[in-house]
């Protein structure tokens, strides 16, 4: 082993911290340089179009994706309901998420290891852009979701056409004489007569999504959209063997072309407003880096259900919290308020709780029962979490008044 030179400084924690800070500074400057280069190129293109109209169409064809980096992000709703989605009480979480994002420093990347329906990301996308965060990593263990988002980013026109085609054929599967108004729930007494056509159409397309290897990525993306739109409560489930178990929602409804177009192009615009990366990994395979802000929304602890064949138990909940806390990165974490989780949080983490509805219960009565949500975060936006040895609690009313 080659001996160290006498002039070589010892690698101390302070030296490591200085080097890391210098690296982040250079990385941020490169991002600013990229923006400056883009603006110069844009002026050249505009001038070229003025002098040579034949090139104008070529220029405009690529301007949509380029300009999305500089235009404000309009409100975009999640493309579908999905189990665990925070859209019903997003204002409570988003307020904390926005505060956290605004306060973090030297952060260049935003990552959601459990992206789901993108309800949280879409709600804070404009805040991320205003903060100057250019890179976004959207990860989910469900490969069908990630494929859908990739197709919305790369081929929105083809995806819209595919979804609309499935919707047209679904409505055609209803008997002509069946006069139930559009959007209504199909009565139980009518369901046996629709078993071999309407219900069979749903099940056949659900099976194709899982097992038909001849499908291309656009077709698969159209199928997951259809299954989630017409499934029960947006509840995506898998059996232990990995088969999709999402039940039919028994509604006579059609997602019309204007709604499909609005949602897909909305996603396309937001994705192209960032350097968006879609990944289909287990959370332990992600890069837990200090220059990244993580929003962690794993499956609820003790929900009584395993939505994916891989499951997500106490060991995974523990490993997830240990990974993000050991990384030193800023984060926000949401789950059920459970003592098991709270015991895993270190003293640098702030905790808040609020009431929410039990949105995954099967009956309306059970869904009306209040549950308690846990929010845990580590950024300079929140006060220190312990007061006289007790957890800092902020009730629902107090959080609502802050908005």
Descriptive report:
The C terminus is likely disordered. 46% of the residues lie in helices and 12% in strands. Strands 5-2-1-6-7-9-8 form a seven-stranded mixed β-sheet, covered by helices on one side. The protein contains 13 helices and eleven strands. It has three domains: 55 residues; 176 residues, Vaccinia Virus protein VP39 (Rossmann fold, 3-Layer(aba) Sandwich); 106 residues, Adenine-specific Methyltransferase, domain 2. It is α/β, with parallel strands linked by helices and 403 residues long.
Secondary structure category: alpha/beta
Number of strands: 11
- Encode the helix/strand succession as letters: HHHEHEHHEHHEHEEHEHEHEEEH
Give the overall silhouette. Answer: elongated
Count of all domains: 3
CATH homologous superfamily of the largest domain, by name? Vaccinia Virus protein VP39
CATH architecture of the largest domain: 3-Layer(aba) Sandwich
Biggest β-sheet: strands ordered side by side in the sheet:
5-2-1-6-7-9-8
Strand content: 5-15%
What's the pLDDT, averaged over the residues?
78
Instruction: Give the fraction of residues assigned to helices.
Output: 40-55%
Q: In CATH terms, what is the fold-level topology of the largest domain?
A: Rossmann fold
Quickly count the helices.
13
